[in-house]
Amino acid sequence: MGWRMRDITMPNKYSDEFKADAVALYQRHPELSYRQAAEDLGVSQAALKVWVRQARRAAGKIPTLAPEAAGQRPETAEEELARLRVEVDALRADKRSMRADLDRVTEERRILQKATKYFAAETTW
Fold first, then answer.
1. Which Pfam families match (predicted)?
2. Cβ within 8 Å of residue 48, ≥6 positions away
3. CB 64 within 8 A of CB 70
């Protein structure tokens, strides 16, 4: 029986505190790329990406792959339909709000264009 790579576990090289500090540093400085932050910390880019993703998932910012993985039961068709209807209603309300904002901004722009023409014609140097 031969050995396989997945049978070998790598020792945990970094403490949980170091990982949390690395994630916090990366999140506090959005101008840093993964590469730059990883170089500053002396870790691999892939490790930092994994830590950030794990932290985001733990904070609920990234959904888990399957409801079963999070200890939840799968959604029934009725529950999914109800959830989607609520989402559609929210999106329609957002659309109405955005349409009203667009109409208001379009009217303001039209007024400003007229005012610009008026003052440009009035001003003679």
1. HTH_Tnp_1
2. 22, 23, 26, 34, 37, 38, 41
3. yes
pTM as predicted: 0.44
Q: Give the confidence band of 64 by pLDDT, cuts at 50, 70, 90.
A: low
CA dihedral 9, 10, 11, 15 (to 10 degrees): -110
Phi, psi of 71 (to 5 degrees): 80, 15
For residue 59, the tally of other CB atoms under 10 A from its CB is 9
Question: Domain 10-63 is in which class?
Answer: mainly alpha
Query: In the predicted model, is pLDDT for residue 75 greater than 70?
Result: yes
Could you state, in order of their start, the residue ranges of all structural domains in the chain? 10-63, 75-125
